[in-house]
Amino acid sequence: MSTRDWLDVVVIPIVLVLIALVWPSIQNWHRCRTFTKLIFRELAEVGPYPLEAERDHWAEHLTKNFAHRTILKEISQNRDFVLSLDADLVYDLTQLWDWYERKDAQQWLYYLGKLTDYDKTGRLQQVRASWVELVERYRRKGKPPG
After folding, report:
1. What would the DSSP string read from start to end of 12-57?
2. What is the pLDDT of residue 145?
3. Can you list the alpha helix ranges (DSSP code H) found in 44-122?
4. Which pick of 28, 82, 115, 138 has the fewest CB atoms within 10 Å?
5. Would the pLDDT of 132 be above 70?
6. Integer angstrom CA distances of residue 40 from 3, 47, 87, 118
7. Each residue of 84-127: pLDDT tens digit?
8. Distance of CA 37 to the CA centre of its chain
9. Distance (Å, whole) CA 101 – CA 135
């Protein structure tokens, strides 16, 4: 058998089979990476607005909706994708939004702090500091922060 025969009969089919087997994993890795970037891009915008304690409750200062929150809420429709993500990240995110809905400032800030460990840009730390400051303003005004 010549080299060309080996390529045509053995090597090329094996390479094609390997690509077909590995391709779904590559796509899944890329989707997870892209979604994780989206999460932290959105979390960088989770800061309170306005910064003054002028509303009835601290939680009313979050004025934006986030795609990652919607995807995590609809877990039955996105089960396989969510399960392919970093389990600790998903847990901390779901806890963050659960405590936000319960309007518990202490737990909200705790999980926001845990998420800063994943953020390589440092922007989430600044966002958390803004929330800490806002919650403290509510405490000083005598309004229960939750």
Report:
1. HHHHHHHHHHHHHHHHHHHHHHHHHHHHHHHHTT---SSSSS-SSS
2. 62
3. 67-73, 79-83, 87-101, 105-116
4. 28
5. yes
6. 51, 12, 16, 9
7. 889 999 999 999 999 999 999 999 999 999 999 988 888 999 99
8. 8
9. 16
- Quote the CA–CA distance of 135 and 53 in Å, as a whole number: 8
Distances (CA, A) of 51 to 16, 59, 63, 127: 57, 12, 12, 11
Nearest to 133 by CA among 117, 109, 115: 109
Would you say 96 and 108 are in contact if contact means Cβ atoms under 8 Å apart? yes
Q: Find the helix packing angle between 105-116 and 123-140, rounded to 10°.
A: 160
3-state secondary structure of 44: coil
0.85 exceeded by the pTM? no
Helix axes 12-43 and 123-140, enclosed angle (nearest 10):
30
